Amino acid sequence: MQDLYRIGIVGATGDDRRYVSRVESSSLIELSPVEQALHWPQGVAQVLADAMNSELERSGRKYRLEPQNASATVKYTAWAETNVYGSRVETEFEVSADATAEQIQEEARIVIFDYLEWGYEKAEDQG
Does residue 91 lie in a domain region? Predict the structure, then answer.
């Protein structure tokens, strides 16, 4: 039996995790919780995700979609800490069991950046 894939938002976790649940065209899709996700064979899911990502990029949307094996996932823990005592934060995320090391690293970076606020500003001259 062939594995089925759902198309989900890269980096979304917990209650924010959404999957494609309706497709009118590459520019008109509906995202819903996993219970309502549509499923496709891997090749079809990849073609659809590529088309949807092209449209998302054209319209200036910041998120990406990727096919995820509907039956096989692996859970990881991502963490971040600074040199300040007690600053460590951890969160769990899941990726497809067939994810590459680069995909796992990207997913970890995305979920950890949800915990960080950072920026910069020009320092005032001291003299």
Answer: yes
Q: Domain span at residue 33?
A: 4-69
Residue 63 in contact with residue 11, Cβ under 8 Å?
yes
Domain check: are 55 and 77 in the same one?
A: no
**Which residues does residue 76 pair with via DSSP β-bridges, in sequence order?**
93
Q: Is residue 89 part of a domain?
A: yes
Question: Residue 99, SS3?
Answer: coil
Please answer whether residues 78 and 96 qualify as being in contact, where contact means their C-beta atoms are separated by less than 8 angstroms: no
100 phi and psi, to 5 degrees? -80, 165
Q: Which of 111, 105, 71 is nearest to 93 (CA)?
A: 111
Is the pLDDT at 72 greater than 80, yes or no? no
Q: What is the pTM of this model?
A: 0.52
